[in-house]
Amino acid sequence: MNSIVADLHSASTSELVDAAAAIAAELAQRPAPDSGAACMELAEELATAADRVELALAGMIAVVDRTGEMKRWGLASTQAWLRCRMGMREGRAKERIVLARQLPRLEQVTARLAAGQLSYGYAATIADAVQRLGDEDCASAEDILLTAAGEGLSAGKVARLGTKIHDLVAERNGEDKPPDDVVRGYERSWVTVSRSLDGGCYVKGWLNPEDTAILDGTLAPLAKPAGTDDRRDLGERTAAALSSVLAGGHKASRVTVIANLDTLSGGDTPGWLRDGTPIPAAQVRRIALTAGISPLILGPDHEPLYLGHAVRIASAGQRRVLETLYDTCAVQGCETPGLLCEVDHVEGWALGNSPTDIDKLALCCGWHNRWKHTHPDQMHIFKNDAGRYVYRALPPDARFERGRPAIRSDHATSWAA
Q1: Which residues form the DUF222 domain (predicted)?
Q2: Could you tell me if 152 and 86 lie in one domain?
């Protein structure tokens, strides 16, 4: 076991972080005690320590957010940094960013969190509640919310109290309008979609009379029972009708199936959808019998996909192929959908190196496309096993020879200094 010797008061922040990391690594390998009472006591003490670590982390996030350091590393935002390099889920990243930005205005919250007298959950809830308030109202709200937390109200109830405070402040300032959902409901149609953890989604909205008539005229005929044996209720039939309309109804919806030539000629290699879902070889061949097939060398109507240096802007056929290959931006960790990305010349059109040919193009979001152009020595580019270009943003101190991107055909993730 490694020993740690440090003067806590004179040690630098870096030394303290190293010590905390070493202790955490050792603690993670220790089995929990057999005593339930001991575990309960230790867990509460450890949770308090973790809350204090969250305070230190928030301070560091605030500096990165304020200085924009993450952009030097090829990351478009603080949230992208937390998500890509720390593996945080989007909600968790947003929560920490709000806390980091609001703590300078929350002196009492900061002091109590540092002293172990307030949990991270309450601190994050209060920070979220005051982010839309002015400084004076923020101070008053902080007193009220801390009092509520001290009286034993749950974090959820403190959050609802924060919402009530915001509504009262808005009413006092003459902003006595109803919530946004209600306003939208009475002014114009609106729909919101929120994802669930299992890949589904919840749909909420309001339609004006005109749009309601369109909805009824479209879905009502399709939502009727399919027969006496149809046991679905109206909600289930309406959902099925909506899915049918979204898919094109009686019209054939466009589905892209990617397959090797060997599969189409009788091989056993499965095909796959754009999201990676495998399709058995036999089913691929059945689909191909009635589908329009666009090879990657020639697009629909034999549109050429190799345009050389004569044309700079990619054609519609080239873009369709690229959207099939790239679900998201080519930069590792960037989740911008390929449909919203720009066509990028891998080796740079301005340099005269990259023709407008399908094997020299990739999809890249607008932010990373500009970053790649201004930081060519910080972008490592290689091809993976699927034949797609992968862009990897390098730390600011990593440089390639000749000051230009390194293009590799393998899938190695290391690079030469």
Answers
A1: 42-323
A2: yes
The DSSP code sequence of 130-177 is: HTTS-HHHHHHHHHHHHHHHHTT--HHHHHHHHHHHHHHHHHHTT--P
Residue 327, both tokens: 């679900």
120-130 pLDDT, tens digit per residue, is 999 999 999 99
Hey, what are 258's tokens? 């990617």
For residue 234, what are its two tokens?
């109206």
Give this prediction's pTM.
Answer: 0.61
CB count, 10 Å around CB of 247?
13
Span 197-248, pLDDT tens digits: 666 778 888 877 667 777 877 887 777 777 667 777 888 888 888 877 776 6
Shared-domain flag, residues 152 and 116: yes
- The DSSP code for 93 is H
Domain that holds residue 227: 207-246
Do 58 and 157 sit in the same domain of this protein? yes
| Collapsed DSSP state (helix, strand, coil) of residue 364 | strand
